[in-house]
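Hi Y.,

Following your request, here is the sequence exactly as I used it, all 541 residues.
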Amino acid sequence: MFYALYTGSAPDFFPGDFSADLRLFRPSKRLLITSDHLILYRFQNIHGSPNSVNPSWWILLTAYTLLKLWLVADVELGKDEAVYWYWSQHLDASYALLPFAILKLAHAIAPHQEWFLRLPAILLGTLSTVLIYKLCRKQSLDERLSLWAAAAFALSHWTWHTSSYLHPDSFLVPCWLSALYMARQTETTPGLQTYMLMGIAGGCAVLCKYSGAFLVSGLGLWILLSHPAQERWRLLAAFALPAFIVTSPLVYAQLSTAFYLPQTLSTLSRIEGLSNPFSRLFFFIANPLLFVSPFLLYLLYRGLKHAIKEPDLQILLPALCTIGAFLFFALTRGQIKGNWILPGFLSLWPLAFARTTKRWLLVCAVAFGLLQSIVISVGLKYPGLYSALGERSGLDKTYVELVSNKDKGREPSYSWSERLCEYSGWRRFTWDFEEMLQRKNIYSPSPLISTQYSIPFTMAYYGLTPRAYYTIDDPRFRDLTDFSAAVGPSYPATALFAIRTGTAWPESLTDIYPRRTQVAELRREYPGCAAVAYQIFQVDR
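Below is the corresponding structure, written out as tokens. Let me know if you'd prefer a different format.
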């Protein structure tokens, strides 16, 4: 491509007339035209079947997969990843049953190998890229635009990150794309079987994440509103019954706990400073920019606008149900996070690229997505590259504005640079902790308690000494690690408590253990990252 840009002629794999015509344009125009023809001629199989692509496309997908695998290799688990791992080892159906079951299997095959634990997400990210291409082709996009759409999807920071690290979205997305593909398949394959497969895929999406319920509801409404009256109830039953059977473990778990866990998530990503509904609406619209490039977001919103003006209910309703639900949470609670609504845009993805689009916009959507993804991925692998720059930037401290007051005590990260460094230093910190206990002759198997979930879950993963790990004053983990729920009232005579230096002591722990003695202050350190100090206490009844 750059050869063509500077010489005005194309490499040998382009047609001869293209090489001649290219010289007629300015260098900036050559870049756009060459990019477009690179997609069209190099990676498109114009001689094969409509659904096949050139082997070069598969080579690129393999390189994409291996690059992500290399970028996550040797990167320690972040705090949320540690939670997902711990939850998978104490499997229940109350949340993300399907992802956690796969994580449990991966850990059983290769214990304490971070790269292998992340491998299913990476492979599913590649599968999702293939599915988004197939969906675009199914909705009559030509090969060139389908490849642009797939490239923009694969290289967006949302897809790249959630399919590189442990995240429910990496499992939700392929399930949901499969459901959308089956929905489009019903147009050419009549009969109940396709609706049943669509229901199974939709049910799996719900087992990956609660928001899958909004997506599946949209498909149910599409069946009700767009099918003939004499057929709609039969088709709805063929779709809904398999979906209900697949999700029945989750339904049972939620009914048995009175939907406790979904209610406790009401503080997540709550922006306390936004009380004005118009400010909340603005942040809701703009927040996806943390996960996709502005050019891609423009294409997606343009696709949504077109879907509303010329409605195809199969495309529109899943998007509206998801976006509408999270818009309600944003306006009423101030809960705003861009990646929550992005699965709703997947049904609009082909439409976003179907309309007449200038080549420069396609190039920018892909290029800026790749830049955003690589910068953050490299920053997580080598946090020292950016941490010094981040600490000098006024934007670094804006991270705390995106965290609710309740969660600031539970998630003690106060800047974007600290967020980058959350994936570093836990292994050494845990070993230092255990060495300190041995040096001071403290009973090693004593349970460890913390109000800050990053501490017990990461130490549970990297710890060498078997011990019980608990949280306190965090209702999200009531049925997983809550100290009072798991142990009380038969509390052990002594326990260990860890907390980031400078944060408040929990009064609820004082009621249980009135005596406390600080035994150490340890630092979590990693080259290029600011050291974070933690106080270790021994508490006694």
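Residues 192 and 234 are 8 Å apart (CA to CA).

Thanks again,
Q.
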